Amino acid sequence: MANATEMGTYTLDALEEIAARHPSIGQVRGIGLMIGVEFVKDKATKERAPDIRNAMVHSAFEHGLLLLGCGRNTVRITPPLNVAKAEIDEGLEIFESALTEAEKKLL
After folding, report:
1. Bridge partners of residue 30, in order along the sequence
2. What are phi and psi of 36, to 5 degrees?
3. CA-CA distance, 5 to 40, in Å (whole number)?
4. What is the pTM of this model?
5. What does the alpha-carbon distance between residue 96 and residue 49 come to, in Å, rounded to a whole number?
6. C-alpha–C-alpha distance, residues 89 and 73, integer Å
7. pLDDT, tens digit (0-9, with 9 covering 90-100), for 58-98
8. Residue 58 and residue 28: Cα distance in Å, rounded?
């Protein structure tokens, strides 16, 4: 359980840094390793962006990262409780690359 707490905090912090670089991330939320990332068309209006979420999930899958949609415009991130930092880093790299690709197509 300690690893879940530590890796959850690490992942949330890393996702907040990614959110600062990407206009389509409206909110990052979670506790432990149950994390949600919400996608929006505009951070000010918070208009939902299911098209960006869907494109990003598809691209991530093509690069080896399985993400689950949750609701209309959110991605659920739920790695195993014993996940290693190197695996988190690899997943976050694919996540950001897939998001960059989706934003280029849709924003």
Report:
1. 35
2. -125, 140
3. 28
4. 0.95
5. 16
6. 23
7. 999 999 999 999 999 999 999 999 999 999 999 999 999 99
8. 20
